[in-house]
Write a structure and sequence with these properties.
Helix content is 53%, strand content 15%. The protein has 329 residues and is of the alpha/beta class. Helix 1 crosses helix 13 and helix 3 packs across helix 6.
Length: 329
């Protein structure tokens, strides 16, 4: 299992939820994971029902088996001050630059610099070791930018290394890319079983592969259970014997939904019920087709259920258990 897990996905697919669940899933048997947020939305804090995350690594959860999940919301301005101190020993001068607004100006005018700082801070956490020479974190999970931006976001240090031929900037960019383009890293893509997210996922995979960035798994999020067997689906679609209205009315009546007499409540429910069944059959066919598209990528697929009651902390642990079980299988 790669030590740096990057989670991306089209907006609305639940990538932050998946990243949080993945961090919990990896923090088993006493392992320690760091969940990194880079978009400034504080989505991780909301999921774990904790205070907004500061620019420091803070423990936010304990997983089954005693594992720990830490979280870090990376602030580009503060990351730049760290960078200036690390390589140029600016110290108080760096803080003065922040007061003057120079740091904010630099990260706003040069968006590529912002991405360099974010990826660099995450990769530093991946490489960091304690006094005994052991990695501080067994895994680092990043809630990364959306699929349409992920390749450029991760590959920005390649561009920087090419522009800055010598010096600490060049060496830092090279060190980051050594992590990102190695087996230590895996970029996972979250999608729904819908045409637009699936197509964006397929396009994202092609871009990542072209940039020689390691692609991991596809996570099909918010999937619905199959409510009808294949024979019933075929009948709803008009393939084979039709569905007898009288039998449906009788079944509704037997379930206590009104008498089966003509014009009764049970009979009035037949048409809406059959219409819902037809809609379900159509959606099932579309999801089946999109699943086939994802299968054709050749990547491992993982599936997470739709939590109809919403995602709270208990739901997050349930999703983590699903991921652990599927990886174990």
């Amino acid at each position: 299992m790669s030590r740096f897990q990057v989670v991306s996905g089209k907006g609305g697919t639940g990538k932050t939820t998946v990243a949080a669940a993945w961090a919990l899933a990896l923090a088993t048997e006493g392992k320690r994971t760091l969940l990194v947020e880079v978009e400034g939305r504080q989505g991780v804090a909301q999921l774990f029902e904790t205070e907004p995350l500061p620019y420091e690594e803070r423990r936010i959860a304990v997983a089954p088996g005693g594992g720990e999940v830490y979280a870090l919301a990376i602030d580009p301005e503060l990351a730049l001050l760290d960078y200036l101190q690390m390589f140029y020993k600016l110290g108080g001068a760096g803080r003065a630059l922040k007061k003057l607004g120079a740091v904010d100006f630099a990260t706003t005018v040069a968006p590529g610099l912002r991405d360099v700082l974010l990826t660099g801070k995450a990769c530093e956490a991946v490489r960091r070791k304690d006094g005994a020479g052991r990695f501080v974190y067994d895994h680092v999970v990043m809630d990364a930018p959306p699929t349409g931006r992920i390749t450029r976001f991760l590959n920005v240090n390649d561009e920087v290394a090419g522009l800055a031929r010598i010096g600490p900037v060049h060496h830092q960019a090279q060190a980051v890319m050594r992590v990102l383009k190695s087996p230590q890293t895996a970029v996972h893509l979250v999608t729904l079983l819908e045409e637009m997210p699936v197509q964006e996922t397929v396009d994202g995979i092609a871009e990542l592969r072209a940039a020689r960035l390691p692609v991991g798994r596809i996570i099909m999020n918010m999937t619905r259970p199959q409510l009808l067997d294949e024979d019933s689906l075929a009948r709803v679609r008009g393939q084979g014997p039709g569905i007898g209205r009288t039998r449906v009315a009788a079944a509704l009546s037997a379930a206590g939904l009104g008498g089966a007499r003509r014009g009764g409540r049970a009979e009035r429910l037949v048409d809406p019920l059959l219409a819902q069944a037809a809609e379900y059959a159509e959606r099932h066919a579309l999801e089946h087709a999109q699943r086939a598209v994802l299968t054709d990528t050749g990547l491992p697929l993982r599936e997470l259920p739709l939590l109809t009651e919403g995602v709270d902390l208990a739901g997050l642990h349930r999703l983590a258990a699903e991921l652990r079980g599927q990886d174990a299988a």
